[in-house]
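Appendix B. Raw example, untouched.
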Amino acid sequence: MVVKLDKLFREVIVLDLDHLTYITNLKTDVDVWTASLAELELGEAAKQIFITLLELRRFNCHDFVRFQIIQQIEPNLSHLLLSLEQHYLSNSLLDTKRDQQISELVLEIKSNHALLYIELFKRTQATLETHKFSFFDFNLKKKLNIFRKQTAILAINHLTNLLYSLQLLYLDVPKNFWTSAYRIYQIACEYHFNLDKVEKITEQPSNIDSTEKAFAQLILLFLLNSHKLRQSEIKELMLCISYWTSLIHFSKNQGTQSHYYLDIQSDIGPKLNLHKDVQDKNFYYINTMELASYIESTLRPNAHYYSKTEEKSLTHVLKRHIVTTLNLNPTRIRPRYEDQGTLEVTLGITSAHFFLSHAKHFKETLDLDIDFSLQSNNQVLSQITGDREIQLSSRTYEQRFNAEITKIYHAEITNRSERGYGLQWHNQVIRNLRTGEFILIKENPEALWTGALIRWMKQTNHQTLEFGIELITKSMCPVAVSIPKQNTAQTIYHPAILYKNDEQDYAIILPSAQVFYENQNLLLRMGQNEFKIFLKQSSILTQSCASFSFDLLERSKQPLMDRYFQHQLTSLQTQDLWESLK
């Protein structure tokens, strides 16, 4: 798919088309045709709009006329794209041929849409640069200047919209994407209209009223995601970033808060500023500290928001992700080295619990006389929306669930760093392969399982998926937790992973950041023993899991916890030794 988009973005358009297929008379047929689209089936409407977009790019007419036609089509086009995207955006990754075909059509439509405005901008800029305007052409020149500002904003807005759709599918941008965006912004700065406000244009967000804000929105969407968020989080982010465009600042001069930069002459997105002493005439430095401070303020109780949309859409997990990204310490960036090999991979906390428990299912490890239902991530989420706990009782579901958690997958190594791996997946993508998922990995049968986290994912094509993982620990053991004093007939346990961090302090990985939170009391079950603990600071926070430091409230039980943890580590090492000798 990206190859197709590459060709679109490098295509040279010639205005050699004399008429449009569906609009014969420009004065009367545009309204008639757009009205008829609502009565057509979705596939036919998509076909006609797609063909019209392609033809409009080559149509030999005045650009003011071209602009007027596309503006009349905009409402129908927006509705069409929403309808098409509903067919495949329910899944984080495409898993049917039909989904792939629909997604390709959407991306081609959005690319042509953005390119149409980019070409309008370029031709208008060329006219203003080369045409010698007489005194009597004053009104025309003024109109062209306004038109240039409008097309600049719309071109960047539609590039942002394309980037958003690519991110939802974990795809990279096509070649010449950033070149196109940078060139528009560079011209706006050179001719000093980047800050000029333009009256609202059809389909333009009301608070994106200048080229500067449109460009800031594009940069923010790129910086705050980079393949690390899930679909739901990307959607939430997209709803909010237009409110933050005044909180980041671009400058040709590097300052102490210039955390990121972009090379205006390159075709690469903004990068983390690793070289604070380097000054380059092609660089624009990006100060994001005001935005970081604002998002940090929303983490406090009774926070002030710019909009109700932010208050509703920004989850605690997403806020923490944004703050971490904006405050990223360059010294944490580890060099990566090319490598080859294969890793064994298990997916999810429940699966990790199974393999760390000598192939025992979770309910067996509780060591109780009565049978408790399994607690999966889906059940954890059910506790958020319901008033009461929902336990699984379906034997069919349990059999399927058991089959999923006992699977070991294989991924190819492409590179490694001190704290992680770059991996590649060539087989059919499985549904629970998601960013933020806790996993176990093992490079060879003799090795111990290592706990890790999927940090980012990217599709290079519909058959290949790349993802990066961060190593967490090798010293870990499976445990269970429950929330005390719940209004349920039975105590409900959740699988968890107890581990030692880099400072050799205990920490715990729990299956949901929405159910478990800082300053919460829990019961930690290890074998037949239960310990009262108090969750403190979280160090990992994703939609799938959260890691917390904690205090043991019964200090006299510390030796008992230490002995159990060490016994589990020893038994795991013995288990892996015997497995390697099989």
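End of appendix B.
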